[in-house]
From TrEMBL:
It comes from the Bacteria. This is FAD-dependent oxidoreductase. Gene3D superfamilies: D-Amino Acid Oxidase, subunit A, domain 2 (3.30.9.10), FAD/NAD(P)-binding domain (3.50.50.60). One of its GO terms (molecular function) is FAD binding. PANTHER family: MONOOXYGENASE (PTHR46865:SF2), OXIDOREDUCTASE-RELATED (PTHR46865). Residues 5-323 form the FAD-binding domain. InterPro entries: FAD-bd, FAD/NAD-bd_sf, FAD_aromatic-hydroxylase.
Amino acid sequence: MNKNTVLISGASIAGPALAYWLHRHGFAVTVVERAPGIRPGGHAVDIRGVAKDVCARMGIMGQITRDRVHEEGFAWVDADGRRTSEMPASLAGGEGLVAEYEILRGDLADILYDVTRADVEYRFGDRITALADGADGVKVEFRSGRTEVYDLVVGADGVHSGVRALAFGPEEQFIRQLGAYTAYYTMPAQAGMDPHWFLMHGVPGGRCAGIRPENDRTAKAMLTFRSAGHAVDPRDSDAQKRLLAQVYGGDGWRVPAMLDAMWDAPDFYFDVVGQVHMPHWTSGRVALLGDAGYCASPISGLGTSLSLVGAYVLAGELAAAGGDHGPAYAAYEEQMRGYVTQCQKLPPGGVNGMLPMSAGAIRLRDVSTRIMIRRPFSRLLRLQAGKADAISLKAY
Ligand SMILES: Cc1cc2nc3c(=O)[nH]c(=O)nc-3n(C[C@H](O)[C@H](O)[C@H](O)COP(=O)(O)OP(=O)(O)OC[C@H]3O[C@@H](n4cnc5c(N)ncnc54)[C@H](O)[C@@H]3O)c2cc1C
């Protein structure tokens, strides 16, 4: 039985998934999360390819199947709500732009928390403020005033990772902005909307507004817009809401209702659309996992799968090395590098495809969507499949 102690920063997807595997391999695990609890919010995230095997090995496929969103697909609509093109979920065997297993991010985080909370110490409302890596462990100082020593520390704390800033340096050198921002939040259900389709409205200037019905009371709103760089504080949600009101003011379809709902949304989330690229994900006793080390961006549709697979590999290599972080971290980097590189390749069109700048380009996107869903072109949509399977899982 291994008694090594591991501190994980971040309790969304990567952190609890790693906690699960480390506990199963005999490590003593603590998770520190800056939010007061498991954060709600977000749209549907995809579980693709090898990540489905990881979830099956965790025994959570039943919960995921129970809670996944049942969508018939997504459709683009004009300012009057008329559909201009659509992408049915049934195309490309669940490995196209719409995945077979899509689940609201908050629901997946709840499932992972539920399967770990009895065996792992979770500390909410706290964060790491200093790390000192030494021969016998990492001395960690917390915002709450505690000081403790752990054998290993893992940053699973997202794109703006605090652990990465402390152990690897400022985020500017690692975050590659893709020229867009996105916001997600819960809004009241909209009368007259088909509950089985995710509808999106594109506006010239590179703006998109999407509504995904959730039940008869609520829907998930998404606002994604192009911007070379609005300097907005990542922690100031009032400033972010003011920016959205300014950017989307005057747009049609259901955008006015979306903006109205934004101010009081219980789970407002706003961030840059970007990727994290790093030459190494480990340094001394510290490692990075998920978006903190290799965010692929929401456009990839593979960020959640990457973090689930990364958690399995990192914990497995630590167990295989008997807790010796040197060889374990080297094997983690080696196992994950090719898979991460594949998953960070964006689908055709990338940001331009999702957020065209002109009315003509929006029409062109509709035409190409209508062509793509026809046989024999629909097999091109399986492009995601190869990437999501680009790693072989060891048994550990
Ligand atoms: C609220 C929310 C909504 C999201 N919605 C979507 C979505 O709709 N679509 C999509 O593709 N992706 C979404 N994401 C991102 C998605 O979860 C990730 O891309 C992917 O699942 C990998 O997850 P992760 O655990 O590595 O990072 P994240 O999911 O970003 O989680 C990082 C966690 O670390 C916590 N944290 C941050 N800084 C610190 C700190 N200094 N100390 C301690 N804890 C810290 C955060 O509160 C968060 O709980 C969302 C993330 C969040 C947090």
